Amino acid sequence: TYILNICIMDTILEQQRRYHEERERLTDCLAKECLHKKTSLRENINSDHRMRLQLDRHVDCSEKLFFLYEDKDGLRKEEVAALSGPNEIGEFYNRLKQIRDFHKVHPNEISIPMSIEFEELNKLREHTDEMTTMVDFTDEEGYGKYLDLHHVYNQYCNIKGLERISYITFLGLFDRLQDIAKDKKNSQYREYLFSLLDYLHSYVQRVKPLLDMSQELENVTKDFAEQWENGKFPGWPKESGGALALMGAHLDLSAFSSSSELMSLGLDRLKSALLALGLKCGGTLEERAHRLFLTKGKNIGELDSSLFSKSKAGKNNAGTKEAAKNKDLATIESQVFRLVELLAEQKVATKENVQRKQARKDGEEDEEEDASASESDDEDDEVPYNPKNLPLGWDGKPIPYWLYKLHGLNISYTCEICANFTYKGPKAFQRHFAEWRHAHGMRCLGIPNTAHFANVTSIEDALKLWEKLKEQKNGERWQAETEEEYEDSSGNVFNRKTFNDLKKQGLL
């Protein structure tokens, strides 16, 4: 079998077998990639890009297999006939001779087995570290965490007629395209819109490589066409030029079924109706009736330009061009809206990141810039120096020690009810009484987590307080034996117990 496989190497059947094996190994590799544990956004993005490459390779193999099975040139059929014909032994030795001759000419020609290739892919996936880079991001983008819209923001500020705003305000308004007035959507706005679409499209492909962008944009185009037809697309009211009904001339064509019926209206009436639509109003009675009947149930854009007067035809052509231009702009806007929806998480994170940066003090910024300039890229990849085990801030570096002591994070609080969990600082300690961990511990003790047990962390103290509260509640409860009153025939008042005792003795 091994010799036979070598014999048919590089034949059509061997190519088909190899493509089938490659597809199966790619499927197994995709399954392992899905099951591989990802702990960060960087690892998720890298994993998606690896899966994208494997999916593209799988599709390429499938297309080649389809081409080979289709066998338009008939070579596969000839090969199968040669291997299964009466001279199959001769064919076998002929191909074996070709293989030997090839290896004599190329003695060092070695092909890497497919199993070794995929073993290397699996090892690469297992040993991928946190700093591995598979796609290019700018420093501002933080490997898919934030958007970098500075270039687009500069274009927005250069649009004539728009108010100049800050970058952080722009981050909250850049997708509110419907708020921009129609008369301000000029050529500069068109350039800005294309730049914004190009950036968002590129960013989505880098962050979400498994997303089928062509299908997504096709769905957007279908939804847009429906909204545009109904005049419901945001920022663009319905264009004039719907079905033609001669309301200005007080003539409803729905009541007429043919042009001959319109002739009964007379020359003057037909002329006024044609003038109301800007159509040619000359000619005989029959020509006017026929020209007017052609407008029944149609849009202005659907009519032949020869029906209009010269001045009206020029206006209609200009209006048609303007409408097409507006529709193209609205199409781009619909795609921008959809891409921003896909990046809603990054949009919010970008605005919060800019706000954090602006809230930092100038002195801290200068110190961090000096420190970052002095450190090399290798030092940035290492674990930050933190001998006092201080908490890490939003930038991944230890917070200042004075801030650590100001918030009391050097003080530890242990709660026995929370299974001896330790809380750092008074703020976290006070907050934990209303959180799930403490509530679960109280529920396990059979005690309600009410305000009476605030600041109680010992199980023994909580049980004692619960018993005391139950006794207090029992003491305050209504006791019918001693508090319910009865009156005898002489007007004497007794409690329930005394009244029953006297009654049993016959003293009442």
Mean pLDDT reading: 80
Q: How are helices and strands ordered from N to C?
A: HHHHHHHHHHHHHHHHHHEEHHHHEEH
How would a crystallographer describe the biggest sheet?
Answer: 2 strands, antiparallel
- What's the total helix number? 23
Helix content: 55-70%
Q: Nearest-angstrom radius of gyration?
A: 41 Å
Shape: extended
Count of all domains: 4
Instruction: Give the tally of β-strands.
Output: 4
SS content category: mainly alpha
Note the beta-strand portion.
under 5%
- Separation of the first and last Cα atoms: 117 Å
Low-confidence runs (pLDDT<50, min 5 residues)? 1-9, 240-250, 376-380
Largest sheet: spatial strand order: 1-2
Keywords: Metal-binding, mRNA processing, mRNA splicing, Nucleus, Phosphoprotein, Zinc, Zinc-finger
Subcellular location: Nucleus
Biased composition (Basic and acidic residues): 352-363
Region (Disordered): 352-390
Description:
By secondary structure, this protein is an all-alpha fold. The protein folds into four domains: 12-126, no CATH class; 139-238 and 330-359, no CATH class; 254-296, no CATH class; 401-476, no CATH class. The chain is built from 23 helices and four strands. A two-stranded antiparallel ribbon has the order 1-2. Helix 2 runs parallel beside helix 6 (114-126). The longest helix is centred in the middle third of the chain and has 33 residues, at 310-342. The radius of gyration is 41 Å and the shape is extended. Mean pLDDT is 80; it is low at 1-9, 240-250 and 376-380. Pfam families: SDE2_2C, SF3A3, SF3a60_bindingd, SF3a60_Prp9_C.
